Amino acid sequence: MEAKALSGYWVDANVNTLAAWIRQAAFGEIGVGLAGMRKRLSHLSRADLLNLAELVHATAKTRSIEGATALFRALEVLLPIRGAVWVLARWDADGEMRGVHQLLNFGYPPEWLTLYRERRYDRVDPVLQGYRSGNAIQLWSQAFRRARSADELSFVDACRAFDLREGITAGVEGPKGFGSVLSFWGGDLGRVVRHRTVIEFLAPAFHDLLIRLMTLAPSEGSRETGKSLTRRERQTLYWAGFGKTTWEIGRIVGISERTVMFHLGNAMEKLNARNRVHAIAKAAQCGILDHPP
User: pLDDT tens for residues 231-260?
Assistant: First the structure.
């Protein structure tokens, strides 16, 4: 059970079991069969272990975005974090992202998220490439050093322009092509093994939370809001959810970029969304991204 629970695949263990293991480690009672876990948790103090167990347990009970925000605030007490972005997406067999189904932003510059989607940085992001290659935990500074092409180097420069120089990203794979990429931004995150350990043990629980938020039935109000969108608004949101730029959406749908922006703007207003990324997350909750409109 240990290998499956900690390898990034949430298969046999559940978050409550993980919380119990961590709590046992805090008092030196973890079983010999979990020696690998005991070694990795040795980087944490007893206080860290108890706080981590409590956070994992709280994650298991969370059923809302507001609750997820409270979890992030609690995590800020444990780690020197400036922000985080948690993304649940569906991936094809070649490792290409085929749709964002849940996105939570805690403190990232919204302009950066918009730029990331508009410029399709997912195609050149060394961290995302590392996730596709099976790297469950990555330090950004190490991943950035793998950048070689002009586009990859341009991406790294753009990160630095937004002061996104260092952080840790955890990848968790799930069934049916779903996977989570959990990025934590903070200049000091790479300095201490403790930080990586905390994130590594929280990642499966946060992935489980994203799955839960995606599968929870949206409210009747959300359903009605989704139905109120026009066909063009649903079309533009659908293709935006697949990472298409404004220009690309215009070519696919057969309208101008200005018209695309008009329909997306209307959709954001109807969904009460702060920006395009927020609108896509809400559209996913309404089921708009499930099928081509």
Answer: 899 889 888 877 788 898 999 999 999 999
CB 179 within 8 A of CB 122: no
- Secondary structure percentages of the chain, helix, strand, coil, to 5: 60, 15, 30
Long-range contacts of the stretch 30-36 (C-beta < 8 A, 24+)? 33/2, 34/2, 36/2, 36/3, 36/6
* Whole-number CA gyration radius for the chain: 20
Residue 71 in this model has a pLDDT that exceeds 80:
yes
| 3-state SS record for 69-102 | HHHHHHHHHHCCCCEEEEEEEEECCCCCEEEEEE
Q: What is the pTM of this model?
A: 0.70
Residue 9 in this model has a pLDDT that exceeds 50: no
Q: How many Å apart are CA 137 and CA 197, to the nearest integer?
A: 10
- 60: Cα separation from own chain's centroid: 17
Instruction: Extract the runs of DSSP E, i.e. beta strands, from 95-185.
Output: 97-106, 137-139, 167-173, 178-185
**What distance in Å separates the CA atoms of residue 208 and residue 203, rounded to the nearest whole number?**
9
List, for residues 115-147, the tens digit of each pLDDT value. 898 898 999 999 999 998 888 899 999 999 999
101 CB-contact burial (10 Å; exposed 0-12 / middle 13-18 / buried 19+): buried
Domains and CATH numbers, the chain: 2-61 (no CATH), 82-215 (3.30.450.80), 220-286 (1.10.10.10)
